[in-house]
Amino acid sequence: MRVEYPLTRRSLPVALTLHFWASLLSIWLIFVSPKSTASQVHPVGPIALVGAQVLDGYEVAEISDGVVVYEDGVITAVGSASDVQIPANALVIDVGGHTVLPGLIDNHVHVDLIGHGSYERYYEFLGGDERLNEVMPIAAKQMLRAGVTTALDLGAPFEILDVRRKIDLGEIPGPRLMVSGPWITRVQYDTIPDSYEEVISSPEEGARKALELIDRGSDVIKTWEGLTQEDYHAIVDAAHSRGVKVHAHLYDPEAIKMAIDAGVDVFQHVGSAGNPPYEEALINTIAHKEIPIVQTISHRVWVYPSTLAFPSRLKRAEYKTDMPVDIYREFMDSFQNFHQLPYFRNAATEIRNSKQSASQFIDAGARIGVGTDAASPLNMHLEAIWREMSALVDSGMSPIQVISAATKTNAEILGVFAERGSLEPGKQADILVVAGNPLEDIEVLGRVALVAKGGALWVTENSTLRVEGPINRFQNP
Length: 477
Ligand SMILES: [Zn+2]
Prior knowledge:
single chain, Urease, subunit C, domain 1, TIM Barrel, five-stranded parallel beta sheet, 15 helices, binds zinc ion
């Protein structure tokens, strides 16, 4: 969809002259009168990103000489340079050599985690959930820096709502968050603080807990392990009575069948552990019913072998600057002898199974969303999203399919596609600019140059763009 500005036609030289003076005026206005929230700068007046390849979130051909215009946090025009009239007062940012696409959506994150090597030791270090208010802002910042502008957190105490409030007020950088809050399970894990889970022993209790969680702020319900067929039915019916979707953590084929029968809305993981290959009939049922699958494969198939091959990936400068000294020390110390970490004990089997199940679902034409399980051990927020997208390409999806899955499909799964997930007039200005062409090499998505969230511009430390004007930076003051 393309929108033109209702400017009267002028002769080219006059228009250019007017455009020049208007641009100067707008730059002056932006420098002297930015709208700021607590610590963030929001541009005043229209912003035009020009000269780039534009991918709008749909599975269609790229716009090779594309323009994206937005104002007041809302996209006003998307199209080729010959079709879009750039407003005379726009701040024009030349992003030639780059690709512009919708901000990425991660449909499975953990804002309480930072990639520490051991859950048990991590929670012990944090004093249970006592220092969550320190680590969650670190995770949120890293996600936005990686180009993730919306994320679904699947399992954290309700302290996460305080972090979301700070993000929304502009006090700290981070993606737009949707949250499950604590998950519902019959199996209690001793290594995880109680505030993370609601352990039930009957379907009635499951339904009651689901309603309580929604009252406390859960945007979705997450179910975990050991649930019965009746549990799934009770929880799904309760959640649906409030218009809330249920995301189930699933591996076991019998649990998957129960979840299908109960009408669970989104299947998380499905296959990245010990069960595949799945029966063809089961895969086909999921594909036919168009139940979204969020597989989280790269934390198995990529993290371990890549760290073995290149341990230096654990030492990115941003980790040190993002974290207080003692947290950074603990974080780095947890990677000593990482090949001995219990989390990777079954890495070879899990990698084989992940690859198998990913190909099974992709070949069957299942509805694929994208989630990362970041930041499980060594699966850092700075890399998780593009690594997952790369793993999906390796599993058989084309780059444009994966990009559409991580934007449009993910927004549909979350029920927010009316507001974001594509670059179209009227949608929120959540925009990612990366250096190079992700259609040729999907890992280009790791080269984030610029992120806009709600129109506020964020430039990464190693950005390939030199943007002047109303921008925000991720460095600590
Ligand atoms: Zn998870």
